[in-house]
Amino acid sequence: MPRHPRLAPALDHLTGSLFSELSSRIAGLQGEVFALHVGDSWLEPPPGARTEDIRHAEHGGLNRYAQPQGHPRLLDALQETYGVERARLLVTTGATGALGAICSALVSPGDEVLICAPYWPLIKGVVRTCRGVPRELDLYLELDRDLPPAEARRAVADRVASAITDRTVAIYVNSPNNPTGMVLREAELLGLVDAARAHDLWIWSDAVYEHHAYARPDVPLRELAPERTFEVHSFSKAWAMAGNRCGFFIGPQDPHHTAQVRKISTHTFYSAPTVSQLAGAEVLERGADWLQACRTAYQVAGDRAAERLGVAPPEGGTFLFLDVAEHLDERGLRGFLIDCIDRNLVIVPGTSCGASYGTFVRLCFTGARPDVVLRGVEVLAGLLGR
Questions:
Q1: CATH of the domain at 22
Q2: Which end is more exposed in the chain, N or C (fewer Cβ atoms within 10 Å of the end residue's Cβ)?
Q3: Strands laid side by side in the 319-323 sheet
Q4: Closest CA to 44 of 287, 271, 285
């Protein structure tokens, strides 16, 4: 019982940083640092959608709260862009705020959320802060991409079903995937839907990289399972607005579910920043050409990094996920990361993305200017003997 001076036991399973152990070493780096560990963008948002472009004289009330559901202009733009009824939309403080609100609304203490791995590093913590239990399911790297669609669908359904328990309430899936860069095919997504329907589970679809699918078109899960899917989106990744902290979700076809989650958001962050919402509306209304150019630039950056490292180009997203097992010594992955840091390269340990990935590292190829990324990639290539 967390009475003074004790804190909630859930905090024992959370880390304050992915680099808690090595943060002091990173802080002491001198010269050019290749910070390729955070999923960010070297680009600036489109002209007209930067914070200095949103002026009080033109909009008024920038210092005031927006409506808890979202600014009317942004809701209009989302409704037009995604073709869903307004009552299914909720604007949030980034995708993280969306997932936190959804989790709080759907998970009771002890309930389990099946997390398809490797995964976005913060999702397990989101579940734990809501007193849920995250359960990992190694999925993306286990897929057999040579199977015909019907067999691929059955294989995914069986794999997901094998990990479900009587405490499971939801499945979290992220495609295009952070960290693998994989874009799930429709048959694979349908297999996941089959398992969710068979066991009466919610689906949490993390679609923040929806606009950066290179190998094949992104298939929205909300269209495959509209009755049970919460689909989470963000302006951070698609529009280079990570600092704005603005995202949104599209709830299931019954708008009652979105209204219920809004109770949580109202009592946590209340509303997303007003300026950020207006910037989001601006890009949805006028940013199509910029988005296409951004997508092309990201794909080129990813292809170049992958080619230099001798791995397959990413199917989508902004990351490469590499198995460095052959280059680990008796110090293990921690030693390899120290070798990277000592050469001013900061990347993410694969264990942040799943317990099974203790020989992997994640690199973001959009977190710095392309020339800086390539110099960082050159450091990694040297350590890998490539």
A1: 3.90.1150.10
A2: N
A3: 319-323, 360-364, 348-349
A4: 287
Residue 17 class from Cβ within 10 Å (0-12 exposed, 13-18 middle, 19+ buried)? exposed
Q: Which of 286, 317, 343 lies at the terminal end of a domain, its last residue? A: 286
pLDDT digits (tens, 9 = 90+) for 116-129: 999 999 999 999 99
Domain interval for residue 197: 51-286
Domain membership flag for residue 2: no
| Residues 114 and 183 grouped into a single domain | yes
Instruction: For residues 97 and 140, state if they share a domain.
Output: yes
Q: Is 55 in the same domain as 36?
A: no
Say whether both 274 and 304 belong to one domain.
Answer: no
Residue 357 CB burial class (10 angstroms; 0-12, 13-18, ≥19): buried
Report yes or no on 326 lying in a domain: yes
How far is the C-alpha of 312 from the C-alpha of 302, rounded, in Å? Answer: 10
Question: In a 10 Å sphere around its CB, with 0-12 CB exposed, 13-18 middle and 19+ buried, how is residue 383 labelled?
Answer: middle
The average confidence (pLDDT) of the chain is 95
> Of the candidates 235, 294, 295, which has an alpha carbon nearest to the alpha carbon of residue 43?
294
Query: What token pair was written down for 89?
Result: 């939309």
Cβ neighbours of residue 373 closer than 8 Å, sequence gap 6 or more:
34, 36, 301, 305, 365, 366, 367
The mean pLDDT of 172-181, rounded to a whole number, is: 98
26 and 40, same structural domain?
A: yes
- pLDDT tens digits along 91-147: 999 999 999 999 999 999 999 999 999 999 999 999 999 999 999 999 999 999 999
Q: Is residue 3 part of a domain?
A: no
Residue at token pair 């680990």: 328
CA distance 307 to 305: 6
Contact predicate 44/253, CB 8 Å: no
Q: Which residue has the tokens 């290539």?
A: 381
Kindly report, residue by residue over 210-266, the tens digit of the pLDDT: 999 999 999 999 999 999 999 999 999 989 999 999 999 999 999 999 999 999 999
Q: Are residues 163 and 59 in the same domain?
A: yes
Burial readout 150-189 (b: 16 or more C-beta within 10 A, e: otherwise): eebbebbbebbeebbeeebbbbbbbbbbbbbbbbbbebbb
